[in-house]
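Q: Here's a chain of 218 amino acids. Please give me its 3D structure as C-alpha coordinates.
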Amino acid sequence: MNHMQTVAPLEDFLARARTGLRSTPPTTFSRALVGDVNGDHALAPDPAADAFDREPRHAAVLVPIVARPEPTVLLTLRATTLSTHAGQIAFPGGRMDPEDKDEVAAALREAWEEVGLGLHFITPIGFLDGYLARSGFWITPVVATVMPGYTLTLNPAEVQEAFEVPLDFLMTPANHQRQSAMRNGVLRHFYAMPYEERFIWGATAGMLRNLYERIYAS
Protein backbone atom coordinates (compact mmCIF):
# COMPACT_ATOMS: atom_id res chain seq x y z
CA MET A 1 0.00 0.00 0.00
CA ASN A 2 1.25 3.49 -0.76
CA HIS A 3 1.98 5.06 2.64
CA MET A 4 2.57 8.46 0.99
CA GLN A 5 -1.07 8.75 -0.09
CA THR A 6 -2.80 12.04 0.71
CA VAL A 7 -6.38 10.76 0.72
CA ALA A 8 -7.93 8.72 3.51
CA PRO A 9 -7.12 4.97 3.31
CA LEU A 10 -10.77 3.97 2.82
CA GLU A 11 -11.27 6.50 0.03
CA ASP A 12 -8.01 5.41 -1.56
CA PHE A 13 -9.07 1.76 -1.49
CA LEU A 14 -12.49 2.48 -3.00
CA ALA A 15 -10.99 4.64 -5.76
CA ARG A 16 -8.45 1.95 -6.65
CA ALA A 17 -11.07 -0.80 -6.47
CA ARG A 18 -13.28 0.99 -8.99
CA THR A 19 -10.57 0.72 -11.64
CA GLY A 20 -8.57 -2.33 -10.52
CA LEU A 21 -11.18 -4.98 -9.77
CA ARG A 22 -12.92 -7.05 -12.40
CA SER A 23 -16.46 -5.86 -13.12
CA THR A 24 -17.54 -9.38 -14.10
CA PRO A 25 -16.60 -12.80 -12.72
CA PRO A 26 -13.52 -14.50 -14.19
CA THR A 27 -14.14 -16.76 -17.14
CA THR A 28 -15.11 -20.37 -16.59
CA PHE A 29 -12.05 -22.48 -15.88
CA SER A 30 -10.34 -24.04 -18.87
CA ARG A 31 -7.59 -26.65 -18.61
CA ALA A 32 -5.96 -25.08 -21.68
CA LEU A 33 -5.33 -21.91 -19.65
CA VAL A 34 -3.97 -23.58 -16.53
CA GLY A 35 -0.49 -22.10 -16.92
CA ASP A 36 -1.95 -18.60 -17.04
CA VAL A 37 -4.40 -18.69 -14.13
CA ASN A 38 -3.88 -17.88 -10.47
CA GLY A 39 -3.87 -20.73 -7.97
CA ASP A 40 -2.00 -23.00 -5.59
CA HIS A 41 0.31 -23.92 -8.46
CA ALA A 42 1.26 -20.32 -9.31
CA LEU A 43 4.59 -20.23 -7.45
CA ALA A 44 5.78 -23.61 -8.74
CA PRO A 45 8.82 -23.66 -11.05
CA ASP A 46 6.54 -25.10 -13.75
CA PRO A 47 3.00 -23.90 -12.89
CA ALA A 48 1.27 -25.93 -15.59
CA ALA A 49 2.96 -29.17 -14.55
CA ASP A 50 2.16 -28.59 -10.88
CA ALA A 51 -1.57 -28.02 -11.40
CA PHE A 52 -3.84 -30.97 -10.69
CA ASP A 53 -5.39 -32.63 -13.71
CA ARG A 54 -8.99 -33.29 -12.67
CA GLU A 55 -11.82 -30.92 -13.58
CA PRO A 56 -12.40 -28.58 -10.62
CA ARG A 57 -15.72 -27.84 -8.97
CA HIS A 58 -16.91 -24.25 -8.85
CA ALA A 59 -16.86 -22.23 -5.62
CA ALA A 60 -17.09 -18.62 -4.52
CA VAL A 61 -15.71 -16.74 -1.54
CA LEU A 62 -16.48 -13.33 -0.10
CA VAL A 63 -13.48 -11.03 0.35
CA PRO A 64 -15.02 -8.72 2.99
CA ILE A 65 -13.36 -5.32 3.33
CA VAL A 66 -14.69 -3.69 6.50
CA ALA A 67 -15.23 -0.04 5.56
CA ARG A 68 -13.49 1.54 8.54
CA PRO A 69 -11.43 4.74 8.10
CA GLU A 70 -8.47 2.33 8.22
CA PRO A 71 -10.00 -0.63 6.32
CA THR A 72 -9.66 -4.19 7.55
CA VAL A 73 -10.29 -7.63 6.06
CA LEU A 74 -12.72 -9.96 7.82
CA LEU A 75 -11.35 -13.51 7.97
CA THR A 76 -12.45 -16.76 9.58
CA LEU A 77 -10.69 -19.57 11.39
CA ARG A 78 -12.16 -22.81 10.11
CA ALA A 79 -13.41 -25.34 12.64
CA THR A 80 -10.90 -28.02 13.59
CA THR A 81 -13.52 -30.72 13.01
CA LEU A 82 -13.86 -30.10 9.26
CA SER A 83 -12.69 -32.81 6.88
CA THR A 84 -10.65 -30.39 4.73
CA HIS A 85 -8.56 -27.34 5.63
CA ALA A 86 -9.44 -27.76 9.30
CA GLY A 87 -8.11 -24.98 11.53
CA GLN A 88 -6.96 -22.84 8.60
CA ILE A 89 -7.66 -19.15 8.03
CA ALA A 90 -10.08 -18.51 5.18
CA PHE A 91 -12.62 -16.21 3.60
CA PRO A 92 -16.30 -17.04 4.07
CA GLY A 93 -17.25 -19.20 1.11
CA GLY A 94 -17.70 -22.61 -0.39
CA ARG A 95 -18.94 -24.58 -3.35
CA MET A 96 -21.68 -23.19 -5.57
CA ASP A 97 -25.08 -24.83 -5.17
CA PRO A 98 -27.50 -25.41 -8.08
CA GLU A 99 -29.91 -22.87 -6.62
CA ASP A 100 -27.29 -20.09 -6.55
CA LYS A 101 -28.06 -17.51 -9.23
CA ASP A 102 -24.38 -16.65 -9.70
CA GLU A 103 -21.05 -16.34 -7.90
CA VAL A 104 -22.17 -13.31 -5.90
CA ALA A 105 -25.23 -15.16 -4.65
CA ALA A 106 -23.08 -18.13 -3.66
CA ALA A 107 -20.59 -15.97 -1.75
CA LEU A 108 -23.35 -14.10 0.07
CA ARG A 109 -25.15 -17.32 0.96
CA GLU A 110 -21.98 -18.89 2.32
CA ALA A 111 -21.20 -15.78 4.39
CA TRP A 112 -24.65 -16.01 5.94
CA GLU A 113 -24.43 -19.75 6.58
CA GLU A 114 -20.91 -19.67 8.02
CA VAL A 115 -20.81 -16.48 10.09
CA GLY A 116 -24.32 -14.99 9.95
CA LEU A 117 -23.22 -11.90 8.04
CA GLY A 118 -26.45 -10.34 6.76
CA LEU A 119 -26.97 -9.06 3.21
CA HIS A 120 -27.83 -5.58 4.47
CA PHE A 121 -24.26 -5.14 5.72
CA ILE A 122 -22.61 -6.14 2.41
CA THR A 123 -22.01 -4.22 -0.83
CA PRO A 124 -20.29 -6.26 -3.59
CA ILE A 125 -17.88 -4.07 -5.58
CA GLY A 126 -16.05 -6.40 -7.97
CA PHE A 127 -14.09 -9.59 -8.52
CA LEU A 128 -10.53 -10.85 -8.29
CA ASP A 129 -9.03 -13.31 -10.74
CA GLY A 130 -10.20 -16.90 -10.48
CA TYR A 131 -8.17 -19.13 -8.16
CA LEU A 132 -7.41 -22.80 -8.86
CA ALA A 133 -7.18 -24.58 -5.49
CA ARG A 134 -5.47 -27.92 -5.02
CA SER A 135 -8.48 -29.02 -2.98
CA GLY A 136 -10.30 -29.33 -6.32
CA PHE A 137 -12.09 -25.99 -6.68
CA TRP A 138 -12.09 -23.13 -9.17
CA ILE A 139 -12.80 -20.22 -6.83
CA THR A 140 -14.35 -16.88 -7.75
CA PRO A 141 -13.39 -14.23 -5.14
CA VAL A 142 -16.16 -11.63 -4.70
CA VAL A 143 -14.81 -8.41 -3.17
CA ALA A 144 -17.29 -6.46 -1.06
CA THR A 145 -17.37 -3.70 1.51
CA VAL A 146 -18.92 -4.47 4.88
CA MET A 147 -20.48 -1.87 7.16
CA PRO A 148 -18.45 -1.49 10.37
CA GLY A 149 -21.54 -2.08 12.51
CA TYR A 150 -21.99 -5.63 11.24
CA THR A 151 -23.05 -8.46 13.51
CA LEU A 152 -22.10 -12.13 13.27
CA THR A 153 -23.50 -15.45 14.45
CA LEU A 154 -20.87 -18.11 13.88
CA ASN A 155 -21.81 -21.61 12.77
CA PRO A 156 -19.61 -23.68 15.13
CA ALA A 157 -19.68 -26.65 12.77
CA GLU A 158 -17.80 -24.58 10.19
CA VAL A 159 -16.15 -21.59 11.88
CA GLN A 160 -14.27 -21.40 15.14
CA GLU A 161 -13.60 -17.66 15.08
CA ALA A 162 -13.93 -14.51 12.96
CA PHE A 163 -11.48 -11.63 13.19
CA GLU A 164 -10.20 -8.58 11.31
CA VAL A 165 -6.71 -7.88 9.96
CA PRO A 166 -5.65 -4.38 8.82
CA LEU A 167 -5.80 -4.05 5.03
CA ASP A 168 -2.62 -1.98 5.17
CA PHE A 169 -0.70 -4.95 6.61
CA LEU A 170 -2.07 -7.37 4.03
CA MET A 171 -1.37 -5.02 1.11
CA THR A 172 2.28 -4.41 2.11
CA PRO A 173 4.50 -6.51 -0.19
CA ALA A 174 7.14 -6.96 2.53
CA ASN A 175 4.55 -9.06 4.40
CA HIS A 176 4.02 -11.41 1.45
CA GLN A 177 6.35 -14.27 2.28
CA ARG A 178 7.08 -17.04 -0.22
CA GLN A 179 7.35 -20.30 1.64
CA SER A 180 7.52 -23.98 0.76
CA ALA A 181 6.84 -27.27 2.51
CA MET A 182 6.66 -30.96 1.71
CA ARG A 183 3.05 -32.13 1.45
CA ASN A 184 2.15 -35.69 0.44
CA GLY A 185 5.69 -36.19 -0.81
CA VAL A 186 5.67 -33.11 -3.08
CA LEU A 187 7.38 -29.78 -2.46
CA ARG A 188 4.64 -27.13 -2.49
CA HIS A 189 5.21 -23.38 -2.81
CA PHE A 190 2.79 -20.83 -1.35
CA TYR A 191 2.31 -17.31 -0.06
CA ALA A 192 2.15 -16.71 3.69
CA MET A 193 1.24 -13.54 5.60
CA PRO A 194 1.82 -14.18 9.33
CA TYR A 195 0.01 -11.56 11.42
CA GLU A 196 0.51 -11.56 15.20
CA GLU A 197 -0.47 -15.11 16.25
CA ARG A 198 -2.29 -15.77 12.95
CA PHE A 199 -0.78 -17.73 10.07
CA ILE A 200 -2.50 -16.70 6.84
CA TRP A 201 -1.29 -18.87 3.97
CA GLY A 202 -2.22 -20.92 0.93
CA ALA A 203 -5.28 -20.00 -1.11
CA THR A 204 -6.30 -17.19 1.26
CA ALA A 205 -2.89 -15.55 1.05
CA GLY A 206 -2.79 -16.16 -2.69
CA MET A 207 -6.08 -14.33 -3.21
CA LEU A 208 -4.92 -11.48 -0.96
CA ARG A 209 -1.78 -11.23 -3.07
CA ASN A 210 -4.01 -10.98 -6.16
CA LEU A 211 -5.96 -8.17 -4.46
CA TYR A 212 -2.66 -6.34 -4.01
CA GLU A 213 -1.63 -6.96 -7.61
CA ARG A 214 -4.93 -5.73 -9.03
CA ILE A 215 -5.34 -2.52 -7.06
CA TYR A 216 -2.09 -1.51 -5.36
CA ALA A 217 0.82 -2.81 -7.45
CA SER A 218 0.44 -0.39 -10.34
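Q: Can you summarize the key feature?
A: The first strand starts at residue 38 and ends at 39.
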